[in-house]
Amino acid sequence: MFEAEGWRVRDFFSAEAFLAAPRPAGDVCLVIDVMLPGMNGLTLLENLRAEGSVAPAIMLTGLGDAATAVAALKTGAADFIEKPADRTALIASISEAIKGAKELRTQALLRDKAKARFRVLTRRESEILALMLDGMANKNIAADLGISQRTVEGHRARLMHKCGVKSLPALMELYLLAQQTS
After folding, report:
1. 163 lies in the same domain as 128
2. Which of 9, 31, 34, 45 is nearest to 90 (CA)?
3. pTM score of the predicted model
């Protein structure tokens, strides 16, 4: 069924077999049964999250109860589906999970690039940035820092250039992106 969608499939007999194998990379989605031989699917997902894996996962179960569903979602499952799973719903859930993971990776990359732009600012440029973001005018920044307005303008121009922006709203947007945690 998954191969008919153009997806490569790897299956594992148990959670332990999966954990012993190299982790899949790229656009992946794990489809995990709650009831596995040995370690159960929830524990597998907990272990993956503990090691830092952000791969999306769909949990399947034949014994769907609310507590298990809540536990799966709290552990980071993208969806919880009872067996027998409707083919269309399962394919849609996997597609949505992969799409969401791509968006998260893209957002993380943009956030990391924004943070890198601010890391290259000098101490003085960072001070001026903070005052600019507080809405202070150049002459007030100059007075607060005990430097000339012309010096503030120079620092401001350099920090705008280093950040790759041309306006204060663009700088603010970049700064807010850099401040996001996830």
Report:
1. yes
2. 31
3. 0.70
